[in-house]
């Protein structure tokens, strides 16, 4: 008899498994359809002996001291600040757009004050700001929008930015300083020995058992458990009763090149004519020394593993119908990016899982204290 059956061994499932096992002495079984732990953060050494991320680059960054300290129990860190260049007008220029970007594109020597006025002269003010197109035009205007955002967004989502929620392009700020870093979070680092090693340490507790290459549907009637934590697609759990929630997927083309480096930085974005959106070179991320290098091209596609929930009003309304079903069930928690249909970063999933654990801990304490079962379903809304 397991106390918890957890579906999925990515950040959401693994953090909760570790907390339940180590803090509450619960017996946990993790089930995953894939042949490895770690979810989309899984990394491994390719045939050339280069550490690569199987499901595209995962760059860890957070402003949460609690999240960083928690993960530090399971890994040492390699300090790493990610830099991204965009191929625009025959040049490789920094993205997010900053003072250096503008000066390189226009052959100028603007100061921060100059570039503020320049961008204000270009901006097309939108009220209210509702879509991804509105966000960018409101700040940088049509020319820079078309150079950096329109083509990339259309490839990534197969939708015009005017059809997407404002949150998509709002993730990429515009700066008036010379900070070329992609992220500005307080904590920026990569697991020193890789993500998979971190997950192995996280799941090493004797109370945690793992079944890989296993579909939940095939075994749920044959395993004794008290409660479920479900981190897979919420619509799939309910057999797509109201239809499928839309996702974007990616096809990855990995290549190993017989030279030290392929490009000047970790990731180069291609916002215009190329079919791929970006190329990532893993040695920048991992710090590995090797006489060859491995890169990955990313091609967004409609079908495949569900990576990116598509942020549109109608999709959120459909999710809410599934959430209502989830809220009506006892002894099951839906969490993670797929369980709550939200585009979370890794640190946000960890924070969500730590918050859900605290809720479960309180419920357990109440149950032990008064002898009554007072579970209420959490549908993942406990984001820290």
Automatic annotation (TrEMBL):
Name this protein carries in UniProt: UDP-galactopyranose mutase
Family: Belongs to the UDP-galactopyranose/dTDP-fucopyranose mutase family.
Originating organism: Haoranjiania flava
Gene3D superfamilies (alphabetical): NAD(P)-binding Rossmann-like Domain
Coiled coil feature spans: none
Membrane-spanning residues: none
Keywords carried by this UniProt record: FAD, Flavoprotein, Isomerase
GO MF annotations in UniProt: flavin adenine dinucleotide binding; UDP-galactopyranose mutase activity
NCBIfam families referenced in this protein's UniProt entry, alphabetically: UDP-GALP_mutase (TIGR00031)
